[in-house]
Amino acid sequence: MLYKEPFVIYLNISVCLILFLLALPTLLNKREKLKVRLAYFTVFFFTVISTCIMNLFVIHFGNYKLVSILFIWFFIPLLFGPAIWYYVKSLLGYKVKKGIIFSFIPGAISFSYGIYLLFVSNVEAERVFGAVMSGHHLFYEITNLFPLILTIIYCVKAWFFLSKLKISESEKLYVQTKLKKAWAKEFVFYIFVNVFIFIILMLVLIKGYDVPPMNMDLIGMPIFMLFVYLLIAVRTMMMYTEFEIQYVVSITENTKKIQEQRLEISRDVHDNIGAQLTFFRSILDELKTSSVPLGETVDHKIEDLSNCCNDSISELRNTLWVLNSEVIYLEDLKLKILNFINKSSLVKKNLIFNTAFDFSDNITLSSKQAVNMFRIVQEILNNAIKYAEASTILIELKQQDNVLLISISDDGVGFNLNAKSEGYGLKNIKARVADINGSVEIRTEIRKGTHFDIKLTL
């Protein structure tokens, strides 16, 4: 009996090790979702290796006392087909519905029969084991064939799913998804063809040439599956390399498109609103310098409109700064804040601004973070300048790893923080902090100044 030869042990152990090494790179590939990796590992490694090990312990060593474990363990190879279906759907981002549970019914029946064999006598266990070894145990023969039939069913099911699947060109990662679909079809095709050939080969050899079924289980199956998985493993590594390339290409293209859109928006804002504000300011400047007397009241209104127009142009430039910057660093934010403080000190000459910046790394910021951080500081300083009646304002920005601490305090009149209605400025500050997942603490008392502590994760 060939399956009893010593080389069968080395063959099965070698196959197990090779399959493990082939499956490991995909299992450790963190670019892919964990459920996809686990499904692939189950198809590639778990079901086949567990079957090889069980066949060795029970069939090769002729241990009739473990015949019950042989039937209990059958639910593992029955996972082969469902795992293929789960892998294909998860790879393309689809959930697997409850229908997969029905495929576990044969496994449950085999498991129950194995439990029954645990409690039979040694004589009965030896009789069942003898029937299995001689190929005359019908339930074992059917159960042994069922994982292959179930695999064929799930391969057909997966093929129809992939054939009907439509991928929209508007999807963010269209090329990568298209590649994954092509790979999934190729994967299903390899499994289907090879399992179908193995079924035909097994039936011909066992029924036509009286090859013992145990030779197929312990020699034919490991060799055949090793060949199949070597082919699939090579193709998998090639496809995942292509996925990585296409992922980088897709991200680069999307970043380029976003940058182009931002440039278009900034041009439109600058050309339309900016041009109108500049034209408006030039008219006001002409009225201010007009030789015709306009009256004191009109002069004041023109002055107010001119200041408002200058403020609008300044705000427009701040918006364009964010839109036009491909990458924004903490140092850029620091310079923008210092620029705003310098302009404010020219307006409020009797107000002293003290600043302290402590950045361990010049971390990059998203446009959303940058604009909100600047607006938060701007809003707090504007409120202090207008209402606090302060003589000194202290602005501190400190970076600790990926956390930015913003501290702004003044020695002004303070306000009642417990008042029923908050001002618009305070609500706006809290809303902006929340928008970038930060926290703000405000400490203030009447005639004891105001202190803002803001914590932001970069």
UniProtKB/TrEMBL annotation:
UniProt signal peptide: none
Record GO terms (molecular function): kinase activity
Keywords: Kinase, Membrane, Transferase, Transmembrane, Transmembrane helix, Two-component regulatory system
Histidine kinase domain sequence ranges: 373-458
Membrane-traversing stretches: 6-28, 40-61, 67-88, 100-119, 139-162, 187-206, 218-238
Gene3D superfamilies, per database record: 1.20.5.1930, Histidine kinase-like ATPase, C-terminal domain
InterPro entries for the chain: HATPase_C_sf, HATPase_dom, His_kinase_dom, Sensor_HK_TwoCompSys, Sig_transdc_His_kin_sub3_dim/P
Name assigned to this protein: Sensor histidine kinase
